[in-house]
Amino acid sequence: MNDRPPSAVRRDVRAAPRPDVRDLPHAYPLRLVDRILMVEPSAWAVVVKTLGRDAAGVDAEGRLPSVWLCEMMAQAAGLAMSPGPDRVAVLAAVGRFRCRARAVVAGETLLVIVRVVRRLGANVKVRALVRRTDRVHAAAELVLHFVTPSTPPA
Asked: How many domains does the structure of the chain reveal?
């Protein structure tokens, strides 16, 4: 029996260039993704963030407010879509955001999983979640909008 999917379903993931965290328009300390574990461009991505005390948003007690988890999911979604140098993905909407009460603290490693649900013209809807080692900590539905960055006036 043939284990391969039908040719109509099969995708060649090697055809698209593999995204890199440096593809994000964010610079340190606002880049909230350390490395990409797995990615299928325009479909899904799995990324890792090890939270340090010097990370953006971490307070004096070493806790990360939950709004930063939403930004982390949005950056992972941007990597999953890998729009290229001529287009940038911006966060347009956040829906169904859920987060556990216990705060994320410095020293923890977070796994961010993003899956594209629907494309709507220049918009993309994704479902994302942030996992700790033991269970899901946060989840949300995000809408990304793709824009062409304007060049600054000369």
From this structure: 1
